Known about the structure:
- The structure holds two protein chains of two kinds.
- Chain A is mainly alpha-helical.
- Helix content of chain A is 71%, strand content 0%.
- Chain A contains three helices and no strands.
- Chain B has two domains: 1-93, RNA polymerase sigma factor, region 2, helix turn helix motif (Rna Polymerase Sigma Factor, Chain: A, Orthogonal Bundle), CATH 1.10.1740.10; 100-183, CATH 1.10.10.10.
- In chain B, helix 2 (18-40) crosses helix 3 (43-59), helix 2 (18-40) packs across helix 7 and helix 3 packs across helix 4 (70-88).
- At the A-B interface, helix 1 and helix 2 of A face helix 2, helix 3, helix 6, helix 7 and helix 9 of B.
Amino acid sequence: MNDDRIDLSALAARQEDGHWDAVMHRTLQRVEGVLGSRARSEDPFAFIARWRRPLLAAAAAIIAVLIPVEWALERREAGVERVRDLVQLSGQAVRGAQSPTGAELLSTVSPWRVR
Amino acid sequence: MEAESDAELVAGVRQGSRDAAGVLAERYLRACRAVALAITGEVAAAEDVCQDAFVYAIERIDDCRQPERFAAWLFQITRNRGRNHVRDHQSNRLVEIDAALPDSLPSPADDAERAQLRERLLAALARLPEERREVVLLHDLEGWTHREIAERLDLPAGTVRSHLHHARQRLRGLLGNLKGDGA
């Protein structure tokens, strides 16, 4: 395929008199200015864009931990309530000198009880 | 030592590395010039456009969504800038193509002849579709391979070959036998 090449060398960037080196040098000088000003004044949108991913990941991790913790706390709270009801039922039975029925006991300790 | 990938260099530029920007300039500024030349049809304008486009790309480096495809993104910026330049300088850009294409081709021996040859090449290139100009300039002038052009211009390899074939055929028809010696 190379043999078919058209000689376009007359259009090549001029090397002989340092012309292209000067173009490159000017470009890099401008780039240096741009990078310098980027460092000095941080664009708030760029800042947000850079931190967006880590923030989303952290939020997802927090949610992943909080959901089971919340669920466990709710279960624990329901257990405490059942114990309190049981104590109350026992107190009433002692005061009335009458033992609670099986149905009363079951409805007090059951996790699916209807209040 | 293995050359750093474009994605690594873009990450470096985002962190403020001048060296990374320098490597990207070494890698792509000439190709940028070729892309700009395909649009503006003027060497001086192409050099202005490629510098502006490269500096703009560095300025907006956070907008480069696919750092591994930095070249394609940079070339798109270059094309947009080139088109803006053409629009702003339309009246100065009329190429007298027939006057620029004499019957016989002088051998380039000095600056004047080189300048004349350059004008003839630019006039002939102006008759090609823009995409074919880009492909032939990147391949025959900058020495990029079909694969590099396909990857960096977002074109199928077959399309690159086809563009190159038709561009060369047309240029030969316009210019006569300009087959490269060492190329």
